[in-house]
Specification:
5 strands, Rossmann fold, alpha/beta, about 260 residues, binds thymidine-5'-triphosphate, single chain
Length: about 260
């Protein structure tokens, strides 16, 4: 997997918003997305909230990608990324549209990932590292532009599980998901940087909501303690005001490339 090295910092990294997101629908649930590197503990975070009646938890998208009408796209992706990244990321985008638009009677919707991390982290990384062809990148970008301009993909809060690449590398080898056995540290370092620039430094892509950061290098008991501290925030649908977080994005609003 040396294929995902040396992610170049180029101008195309700086996706500008040329148009704001499609306006949110009335009575939309308070929507929270949980982001972070592979193996950062997103599932642990979502599991914690599964016990609350008023929270709709949308998780385990990876299981959908392992069985698309009998095809294991995750396995195909890791075996031959140049061949399969377009198909894989197309499926990710579909899963995320489904998650974003799924109706619920719950007052809070908690999602594992979003259409934004698919586009701003994974697709961008594949393109920058020249695994994905420019024409394929453009097709996915056009879809992304259409979706974000025509559907309600608004979010109210982002939980960013910050980790170090070394810690997630260790966790990934411990959990031994068979498709991921070849994932090298260098790939996780690239994804780490791209998440950091997006959500922590806020210097690359549009950040669609205020960000709360959690130190997800911590072990399970400490993670659960940190999660319990944001429980009230999420259950009470508390909007966060600048400057309590790093929001608003330093990038100008107005639309995607
Ligand atoms: P994650 O969505 O990061 O899920 P996870 O199960 O690793 O999360 P956690 O351990 O924090 O609970 O990634 C699942 C797999 O899908 C992983 O191998 C990376 C891959 N993936 C892509 O290749 N492209 C994408 O756009 C996304 C979202 C994931």
């Amino acid at each position: 997997m040396s294929w995902l090295r040396n992610v170049a910092q180029s101008e195309s990294n700086r996706i500008q918003l040329l148009r704001p997101l499609n306006p949110p629908k009335k009575n939309r649930p308070f929507t929270v997305i949980v982001e972070g590197n592979i193996g950062s503990g997103k599932t642990t975070f979502l599991d914690y909230f599964a016990k609350f009646k008023d929270v709709e938890v949308l998780q385990e998208p990876v299981n959908k990608w392992r069985n698309v009408q009998g095809h294991n796209l995750l396995d195909l992706l890791y075996k031959d990324p140049s061949r399969w990244s377009l198909a894989f990321q197309t499926q990710v985008q579909l899963t995320m549209v489904d998650f974003h638009t799924q109706e619920t009677s719950a007052r809070v919707k908690l999602m594992e990932r979003s259409i934004f991390s698919g586009r701003f982290c994974f697709i961008e990384n594949l393109y920058q590292s020249k695994i994905m062809e420019p024409a394929e990148y453009s097709v996915l970008s056009e879809w992304f532009k259409w979706i974000t301009s025509n559907l309600d993909v608004n979010v109210d809060l982002i939980i960013y599980l910050r980790t170090s690449p070394e810690v997630v590398h260790q966790r990934i080898s411990n959990r031994a998901r068979k498709e991921e056995k070849t994932v090298p540290l260098s790939y996780l370092q690239d994804l780490h940087k791209i998440h950091e620039d997006w959500l922590h430094n806020q210097t690359t892509h549009f950040v669609p909501a205020p960000v709360i950061e959690i130190d997800a290098n911590a072990d399970l008991p400490e993670m659960l303690e940190q999660i319990s501290k944001v429980e009230e925030q999420i259950l009470n649908r508390k909007k966060i005001k600048y400057p309590e977080t790093t929001f608003p994005s330093k990038l100008p609003l107005p639309s995607y490339q």
